[in-house]
Request: fold
Amino acid sequence: MTSVWEVFRQERKGQAFEHAGSVVAPDIAFAEAYAHEQYGRRGESVALWVVPRDAIHELDDFPDELGRNYHRVDGYSLKVKLKEARERAGTATP
Amino acid sequence: MSERAQRLLELADDELVLGWRNSEWTGIAPSLEEDVAFSSIAQNEIGHARALYELAAADLGTTADELAFDRQPGEYRAAPLVELRFVPDWGRTIARHYLYETADEARIAALKGSSDADVAGLAAKIDREEVYHRLHAEMWVDRLLASPDGRVRLIDATRELWPYALGILDDDLRPTWAERVRERLGVDLTNGDAIARGAHADDWTALWDEMTMVRRSVPGAQW
Amino acid sequence: MDEQGFLEYVQSGGQVETDDWMPDEYRQKLIKFIEMHANSELMGVLPEREWILRAPTLQRKLALTAKVQDEVGHAQLIYRVVEDLGKPREQCLADLISGTSKFHNVFHYPTRTWGDVGVIAWLVDAAAIISQKALLKCSYAPYARIMKKICWEESFHILHGRDVILTLMLGTDGQRELVQEALNRWWAPLMMFHGNPIPAENDPVVQWRIKTQGNEEARQQFLDGYVPQIWELGLTVPDPKLRRREDGVWEYTEPDWDELRSVVTGHGPMTAERLEFRRVTREETAWVRSVVLAEAA
Reply:
């Protein structure tokens, strides 16, 4: 059996690497050569990460049963308070 | 024809014909991943041929396409090694690939030091792509040597192709390269007689026929 | 989640990942649909591959080789999706060669001239890109994601195809005739390409939102986009009934659906020869896969 290698690509310098797909290859030399052509031959990538699939561990369980909104944007409604604060300071625009 | 144009055409014809041969694998290589990788190599070779023809064409008052397609079969200067047809034999294909790429490395290195700035500049550009071809050839040699069956296929093919491979390089570059191949593969390969340029392989005429058939069907047309 | 809940989830636009629970029927339908797509990419290589050796300029040689390479690359991407759903690539290829699984109708026909190369890259790829764009919204997310890369690459093929066609149409009378003659042969297969009109509610593949576009809708989109482009070059579409109604719907001669059925079930003019060619080349390179590409002990 050959193994599966996951490939991540960076489109431009400074951008995050994104999952591109995978290749099947017998060792890292082949995996690199195959990823290089399958995910970069048109100059669509400036860099690739090639990772054995087994090395990737997925975590997908993020319960939020009690509505912990204090570390999310929807936990804060500043608009009304800001309006009142401006009125109190006399800086509100009519 | 100038010595310079002559040399450029030899190099360009090698790359053109090998590119054509390697492109025969596009669509039928041993694995899908390999198919994509080997097709890129074929395309690079055609790209190198085109750049070399353009340089020669400027001297000869013609175009890259005319040099690539409109000569008679006997006028091409390719080494017989690149003319041989191997599909669907992957063992011979890899043996030729390794022999050609290593010989080409020696040839390109010499050209990078040329006093002709255009030639040296182009050689440097070509070499940057050839790095990938060499990595590809070396990884295949590694894998083939690592298995008994693969080893037999690679060594047998190399022995068979050796006289052809000797025809790629001139006398000054040949011995060092031949020694490198012997060491890498761990086999005894005698220097022997080279099958040199000008002595076309039997497979060549059929390939020339096919590669020029559309173009010859309406001479002088745009395609 | 139960089967009904899953169906509602995908019908409302929900997407599924490889390791998510899915009904068996959904998995089987996915495998069959995606495998046929991969088979089509792989078999689509063969009619064009013959012309890689005959391309008449260096530019065309490079573009055509790259196009066929892309198709092999697409087959790789798509078979990877099938493999992750549980069907190994070797099994897919064995089923393809034995005729157990299918591939698209257009790849069962011969390519006779350089005109075919242009018509395939322009119009066959245009028809394909319409189907593939609709798959960007597929409920199975890994398939939808690779479709982005595939559609992006297909757009180069259409450019290459149009350039080949335009160059021929600007050439000699004989070159122009190559295009018209190729179009005459390819029109019927092109009209069958998107399949016979099945009402969406009777199409399980649409119900599971594996595909999101009906067959007739795709064909109308193709006619709308490309018939004007064909006409403006002075080419004739070989269908006397073809016309665009006032309400924008295209009328055309009913394609021969029996021919479509016969072709895709393995009785096309080139089916046997191409499958045999695949079988032989796979057999010749089997040692490479077993000896060299197998994982080191």
Remarks:
- The two ends of chain B are 28 Å apart (CA to CA).
- DSSP finds nine helices and no strands in chain B.
